[in-house]
Protein backbone atom coordinates (compact mmCIF):
# COMPACT_ATOMS: atom_id res chain seq x y z
CA UNK A 1 0.00 0.00 0.00
CA UNK A 2 1.24 3.45 -0.83
CA UNK A 3 -0.21 6.88 -0.07
CA UNK A 4 -1.56 7.42 -3.59
CA UNK A 5 -3.64 4.28 -3.46
CA UNK A 6 -4.74 4.97 0.10
CA UNK A 7 -5.91 8.47 -0.94
CA UNK A 8 -7.64 6.92 -3.94
CA UNK A 9 -9.48 4.36 -1.84
CA UNK A 10 -10.42 6.95 0.78
CA UNK A 11 -11.71 9.21 -1.95
CA UNK A 12 -13.79 6.33 -3.30
CA UNK A 13 -15.13 5.64 0.17
CA UNK A 14 -15.90 9.33 0.66
CA UNK A 15 -17.77 9.53 -2.65
CA UNK A 16 -20.14 6.75 -1.60
CA UNK A 17 -20.69 8.32 1.83
CA UNK A 18 -21.40 11.68 0.19
CA UNK A 19 -23.93 10.06 -2.16
CA UNK A 20 -25.74 8.22 0.63
CA UNK A 21 -25.72 11.41 2.72
CA UNK A 22 -27.16 13.41 -0.19
CA UNK A 23 -29.99 10.92 -0.72
CA UNK A 24 -30.76 10.63 3.01
CA UNK A 25 -30.71 14.33 3.87
CA UNK A 26 -32.53 15.64 0.80
CA UNK A 27 -34.76 12.53 0.88
CA UNK A 28 -34.34 12.46 -2.87
CA UNK A 29 -32.21 10.84 -5.52
CA UNK A 30 -32.90 13.58 -8.03
CA UNK A 31 -29.98 14.10 -10.36
CA UNK A 32 -28.52 10.64 -9.76
CA UNK A 33 -28.42 8.16 -12.62
CA UNK A 34 -29.86 4.82 -11.61
CA UNK A 35 -28.14 3.22 -14.59
CA UNK A 36 -24.70 4.33 -13.40
CA UNK A 37 -25.42 3.03 -9.90
CA UNK A 38 -26.64 -0.31 -11.29
CA UNK A 39 -23.46 -0.54 -13.38
CA UNK A 40 -21.37 -0.07 -10.23
CA UNK A 41 -23.14 -3.01 -8.58
CA UNK A 42 -22.31 -5.06 -11.67
CA UNK A 43 -18.69 -3.87 -11.49
CA UNK A 44 -18.21 -4.72 -7.81
CA UNK A 45 -20.00 -8.06 -7.91
CA UNK A 46 -18.10 -9.28 -10.97
CA UNK A 47 -14.74 -8.04 -9.65
CA UNK A 48 -14.89 -9.11 -6.02
CA UNK A 49 -15.80 -12.76 -6.56
CA UNK A 50 -12.30 -13.45 -5.26
CA UNK A 51 -13.66 -12.63 -1.79
CA UNK A 52 -14.65 -16.28 -1.69
CA UNK A 53 -11.31 -17.85 -2.50
CA UNK A 54 -8.48 -15.31 -2.19
CA UNK A 55 -7.45 -13.69 1.06
CA UNK A 56 -5.47 -10.47 0.61
CA UNK A 57 -5.83 -8.50 3.85
CA UNK A 58 -8.38 -7.35 6.36
CA UNK A 59 -8.38 -3.91 4.74
CA UNK A 60 -8.97 -5.42 1.32
CA UNK A 61 -11.73 -7.68 2.63
CA UNK A 62 -13.68 -4.94 4.36
CA UNK A 63 -13.37 -2.51 1.47
CA UNK A 64 -14.72 -5.11 -0.97
CA UNK A 65 -17.62 -5.98 1.31
CA UNK A 66 -18.31 -2.29 1.79
CA UNK A 67 -18.32 -1.52 -1.93
CA UNK A 68 -20.66 -4.38 -2.76
CA UNK A 69 -23.07 -3.71 0.09
CA UNK A 70 -23.13 0.09 -0.19
CA UNK A 71 -23.75 -0.02 -3.94
CA UNK A 72 -26.65 -2.46 -3.41
CA UNK A 73 -27.97 -0.21 -0.64
CA UNK A 74 -27.94 2.78 -3.03
CA UNK A 75 -30.02 0.80 -5.53
CA UNK A 76 -32.45 -0.01 -2.74
CA UNK A 77 -32.70 3.69 -1.81
CA UNK A 78 -33.33 4.65 -5.43
CA UNK A 79 -35.77 1.88 -6.36
CA UNK A 80 -37.67 1.43 -3.11
CA UNK A 81 -37.28 4.03 -0.39
CA UNK A 82 -37.12 7.16 -2.53
CA UNK A 83 -38.54 5.71 -5.71
CA UNK A 84 -40.86 8.67 -6.51
CA UNK A 85 -37.84 11.00 -6.67
CA UNK A 86 -36.11 8.89 -9.31
CA UNK A 87 -36.97 10.07 -12.82
CA UNK A 88 -36.08 7.41 -15.40
CA UNK A 89 -37.20 9.65 -18.27
CA UNK A 90 -33.98 11.70 -18.07
CA UNK A 91 -31.77 8.65 -17.47
CA UNK A 92 -31.72 7.64 -21.11
CA UNK A 93 -28.20 6.47 -21.84
CA UNK A 94 -28.25 3.10 -23.62
CA UNK A 95 -26.15 0.91 -21.35
CA UNK A 96 -26.14 -2.01 -23.77
CA UNK A 97 -23.62 0.06 -25.76
CA UNK A 98 -21.33 -0.18 -22.73
CA UNK A 99 -22.02 -3.74 -21.60
CA UNK A 100 -21.55 -5.32 -25.04
CA UNK A 101 -18.18 -3.78 -25.93
CA UNK A 102 -16.87 -4.34 -22.38
CA UNK A 103 -17.79 -8.02 -22.59
CA UNK A 104 -16.03 -8.34 -25.94
CA UNK A 105 -12.96 -6.49 -24.67
CA UNK A 106 -12.84 -8.76 -21.62
CA UNK A 107 -12.91 -11.83 -23.85
CA UNK A 108 -9.96 -10.45 -25.82
CA UNK A 109 -7.92 -8.88 -22.99
CA UNK A 110 -7.47 -10.79 -19.73
CA UNK A 111 -4.58 -12.31 -17.79
CA UNK A 112 -5.97 -15.82 -17.76
CA UNK A 113 -8.84 -17.39 -19.64
CA UNK A 114 -10.93 -18.41 -16.64
CA UNK A 115 -14.44 -17.27 -15.69
CA UNK A 116 -13.29 -15.16 -12.75
CA UNK A 117 -10.37 -13.55 -14.57
CA UNK A 118 -12.52 -12.64 -17.60
CA UNK A 119 -15.15 -11.21 -15.21
CA UNK A 120 -12.39 -9.25 -13.50
CA UNK A 121 -11.33 -7.75 -16.85
CA UNK A 122 -14.96 -7.04 -17.68
CA UNK A 123 -15.40 -5.20 -14.38
CA UNK A 124 -12.31 -3.09 -15.01
CA UNK A 125 -13.49 -2.08 -18.49
CA UNK A 126 -17.04 -1.49 -17.30
CA UNK A 127 -15.93 0.64 -14.36
CA UNK A 128 -14.03 2.94 -16.69
CA UNK A 129 -17.24 3.85 -18.54
CA UNK A 130 -19.88 3.28 -15.84
CA UNK A 131 -20.05 7.01 -15.10
CA UNK A 132 -21.22 7.84 -18.65
CA UNK A 133 -25.01 7.56 -17.97
CA UNK A 134 -24.48 9.96 -15.04
CA UNK A 135 -22.42 12.43 -17.05
CA UNK A 136 -24.91 12.14 -19.92
CA UNK A 137 -27.74 13.00 -17.55
CA UNK A 138 -25.78 15.98 -16.25
CA UNK A 139 -25.17 17.13 -19.79
CA UNK A 140 -28.88 16.79 -20.58
CA UNK A 141 -30.18 18.68 -17.57
CA UNK A 142 -27.27 21.15 -17.68
CA UNK A 143 -27.10 21.56 -13.90
CA UNK A 144 -26.49 19.66 -10.69
CA UNK A 145 -26.92 20.08 -6.97
CA UNK A 146 -23.63 21.06 -5.34
CA UNK A 147 -23.54 17.91 -3.21
CA UNK A 148 -23.91 15.77 -6.33
CA UNK A 149 -20.89 17.49 -7.84
CA UNK A 150 -18.86 16.75 -4.69
CA UNK A 151 -19.84 13.12 -5.10
CA UNK A 152 -18.66 13.11 -8.70
CA UNK A 153 -15.44 14.93 -7.85
CA UNK A 154 -14.54 12.41 -5.15
CA UNK A 155 -15.37 9.55 -7.50
CA UNK A 156 -13.24 11.05 -10.25
CA UNK A 157 -10.37 11.71 -7.85
CA UNK A 158 -10.36 8.04 -6.88
CA UNK A 159 -9.12 6.64 -10.19
CA UNK A 160 -6.98 9.75 -10.73
CA UNK A 161 -5.04 8.86 -7.53
CA UNK A 162 -4.50 5.36 -8.86
CA UNK A 163 -2.41 6.72 -11.74
CA UNK A 164 0.51 7.95 -9.58
CA UNK A 165 0.06 4.72 -7.59
CA UNK A 166 0.74 2.68 -10.73
CA UNK A 167 3.75 4.82 -11.64
CA UNK A 168 5.07 4.40 -8.09
CA UNK A 169 4.55 0.64 -8.15
CA UNK A 170 6.28 0.38 -11.49
CA UNK A 171 9.39 2.02 -10.04
CA UNK A 172 9.41 0.40 -6.62
CA UNK A 173 7.90 -3.07 -7.18
CA UNK A 174 8.28 -3.53 -10.94
CA UNK A 175 4.55 -4.25 -11.19
CA UNK A 176 2.61 -3.27 -14.30
CA UNK A 177 -1.04 -4.08 -14.83
CA UNK A 178 -1.72 -2.89 -18.41
CA UNK A 179 -5.48 -3.63 -18.32
CA UNK A 180 -6.06 -1.62 -15.14
CA UNK A 181 -3.73 1.18 -16.21
CA UNK A 182 -5.26 1.72 -19.66
CA UNK A 183 -8.82 1.63 -18.34
CA UNK A 184 -7.86 3.81 -15.40
CA UNK A 185 -6.50 6.47 -17.71
CA UNK A 186 -9.66 6.34 -19.84
CA UNK A 187 -11.81 6.52 -16.71
CA UNK A 188 -9.96 9.57 -15.40
CA UNK A 189 -10.03 11.28 -18.81
CA UNK A 190 -13.84 11.03 -18.90
CA UNK A 191 -13.95 13.34 -15.87
CA UNK A 192 -11.78 16.10 -17.32
CA UNK A 193 -14.70 18.16 -18.63
CA UNK A 194 -16.53 17.78 -15.35
CA UNK A 195 -13.44 18.69 -13.31
CA UNK A 196 -12.97 21.84 -15.36
CA UNK A 197 -16.45 23.09 -14.46
CA UNK A 198 -16.08 21.83 -10.87
CA UNK A 199 -12.87 23.75 -10.27
CA UNK A 200 -13.85 26.92 -12.11
CA UNK A 201 -17.41 27.13 -10.77
CA UNK A 202 -18.36 24.94 -7.80
CA UNK A 203 -15.15 25.51 -5.83
CA UNK A 204 -15.54 29.26 -6.45
CA UNK A 205 -18.90 29.10 -4.74
CA UNK A 206 -21.07 29.10 -7.86
CA UNK A 207 -23.73 26.62 -8.91
CA UNK A 208 -22.79 23.82 -11.29
CA UNK A 209 -24.29 24.96 -14.57
CA UNK A 210 -23.26 24.07 -18.06
CA UNK A 211 -23.35 26.76 -20.74
CA UNK A 212 -26.58 26.42 -22.74
CA UNK B 1 5.09 -14.47 -14.04
CA UNK B 2 1.65 -16.04 -14.27
CA UNK B 3 -0.42 -12.90 -14.20
CA UNK B 4 0.44 -9.26 -13.85
CA UNK B 5 -2.81 -8.29 -12.26
CA UNK B 6 -2.31 -6.49 -8.96
CA UNK B 7 -4.53 -8.57 -6.69
CA UNK B 8 -4.27 -6.22 -3.74
CA UNK B 9 -5.82 -3.31 -5.65
CA UNK B 10 -9.48 -2.53 -5.35
Describe this protein's structure.
The complex is a heterodimer of chains A (212) and B (10). Chain A has helices at 3-26, 34-47, 58-81, 96-108, 115-129, 132-141, 146-172, 178-190, 192-200, and strands at residues 143-144, 208-209. The mean pLDDT of chain A is 96. Helices cover 70% and strands 2% of the residues of chain A. A two-stranded antiparallel ribbon of chain A has the order 1-2. The longest helix of chain A is centred in the last third of the chain and has 27 residues, at 146-172. Chain A is globular. Chain A has one domain. Chain B has 10 residues and is low in regular secondary structure. Chain B is rod-shaped and about 20 Å long. The termini of chain B are far apart. At the A-B interface, helix 1, helix 3, helix 7 and helix 8 of A face loops of B.
Instruction: Count all strands of chain A and give the number.
Output: 2
Q: Work out the radius of gyration of chain A.
A: 17 Å
**What kind of sheet is the major sheet of chain B?**
none
Please indicate the percent range of residues of chain B in DSSP E strands (runs of 2 or more): under 5%
Question: Helical content of chain B, roughly?
Answer: under 10%
Helix-strand topology string of chain A: HHHHHHEHHHE
Largest sheet of chain A: 2 strands, antiparallel
The geometry of chain B reads as: rod-shaped
**Would you identify the regions of chain B where 5 or more consecutive residues have pLDDT less than 50?**
none
Whole-number tally of structural domains of chain A: 1
The average pLDDT score of chain B comes to 77
Structural class of chain A: mainly alpha
Kindly report the oligomeric state of this protein. Answer: heterodimer
Termini separation of chain A comes to: 44 Å
Structural class of chain B: little secondary structure
Strand order of the largest sheet of chain A: 1-2
Mean pLDDT across all amino acids of chain A: 96
Radius of gyration of chain B: 7 Å
Membrane topology (chain A): Multi-pass membrane protein
Protein name (chain A): ER lumen protein-retaining receptor
Keywords (chain A): Endoplasmic reticulum, ER-Golgi transport, Membrane, Protein transport, Receptor, Transmembrane, Transmembrane helix, Transport
Transmembrane segments (chain A): 52-76, 97-113, 179-199
Amino acid sequence: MNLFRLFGDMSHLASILILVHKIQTTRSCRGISFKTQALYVTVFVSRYLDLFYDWVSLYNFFMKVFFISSSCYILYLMKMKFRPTNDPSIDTFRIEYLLGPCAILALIFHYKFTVTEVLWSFSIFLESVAILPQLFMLQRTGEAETITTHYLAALGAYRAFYIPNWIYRYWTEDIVDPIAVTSGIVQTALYLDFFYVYFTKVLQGQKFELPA
Amino acid sequence: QETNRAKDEL
